[in-house]
């Protein structure tokens, strides 16, 4: 009993001193397909959480999954619109950990964000949204797009424009306290 008690005391002292801490696997960049700078940015007003159909199950396929993800939602598509976060996940528990990391370390209070998911990734995000929907909307979930199958054209130019319009309306509503007048987004 003495050994167990002293071990617990030592662990508590190390934890209190900051010598021992529990970190999220998502603190490490290698556990993300895309993880953009989580620091506050006045240039980019919103975030995008993206899950591809290819969930992480095999290290041999990782390069292809990263490449497809960068093609689907890489910074070129959302440059100036949203920071992109695409965690490497294989299970709903992984998604919970990744989103816990995002909400703790990268999400600013009331910052708008969107969920976009394809195939299995879409199913995981949709289930997460169904479970936490009311709270997600309170903290900024502004749009969500899901498809049941992997589709290289899913994140289309039109979807990007729609997401941009949603984010601009949210920003306008927060800054001006009213809805954006009709026609303001038209070119």
* Helical stretch tally: 6
Arithmetic mean of pLDDT: 83
Largest sheet: 5 strands, mixed
Kindly provide the name of the CATH class: Alpha Beta
CATH architectural grouping? 3-Layer(aba) Sandwich
What share of residues is helical? Answer: 40-55%
Cα-atom Rg, whole angstroms?
A: 19 Å
**What is the count of distinct domains?**
1
Euclidean distance between termini CA atoms: 74 Å
The CATH topology comes to: Rossmann fold
Beta-strand proportion:
15-25%
Shape: globular
Tell me the number of strands. 5
Strand order of the largest sheet: 1-3-2-4-5
Structural class: alpha/beta
Give the helices and strands as they follow along the chain.
HEEHHEHEHEH
Q: pLDDT under 50 segments (min length 5)?
A: 10-15
Give an overview of the whole structure.
The chain has six helices and five strands, in the order αββααβαβαβα. α5 (119-138) links the parallel β4 and β5. Residues 10-15 have low confidence and may be disordered. It has a single domain, classed as Rossmann fold (3-Layer(aba) Sandwich), CATH 3.40.50. The protein has 187 residues and is α/β, with parallel strands linked by helices. The protein has a five-stranded mixed β-sheet with strand order 1-3-2-4-5, sandwiched between helices. Helices cover 47% and strands 16% of the residues. The chain has helices at residues 2-17, 62-73, 75-78, 92-106, 119-138, 157-176, and strands at 32-35, 46-51, 82-87, 113-118, 141-147.
């Amino acid at each position: 009993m003495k050994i167990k008690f002293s071990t617990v005391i030592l662990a508590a002292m190390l934890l209190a001193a900051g010598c021992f801490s529990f970190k999220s696997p998502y603190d490490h960049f290698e556990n993300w397909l895309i993880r953009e700078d989580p620091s506050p940015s006045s240039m980019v007003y919103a975030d995008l959480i993206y899950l591809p159909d290819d969930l992480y199950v095999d290290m041999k396929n990782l390069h292809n999954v990263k490449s497809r993800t960068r093609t689907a939602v890489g910074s070129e598509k959302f440059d100036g619109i949203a920071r992109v976060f695409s965690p490497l996940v294989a299970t709903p528990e992984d998604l919970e950990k990744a989103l816990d990391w995002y909400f703790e370390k990268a999400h600013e209070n009331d910052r708008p964000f969107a969920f976009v998911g394809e195939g299995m990734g879409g199913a995981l995000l949709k289930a997460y949204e169904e479970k936490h929907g009311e709270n997600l909307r309170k903290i900024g979930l502004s749009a969500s797009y899901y498809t049941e199958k992997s589709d290289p054209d899913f994140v289309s130019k039109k979807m990007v424009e729609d997401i941009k319009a949603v984010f601009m309306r949210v920003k306008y509503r927060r800054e001006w306290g009213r809805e954006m007048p009709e026609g303001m987004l038209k070119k």
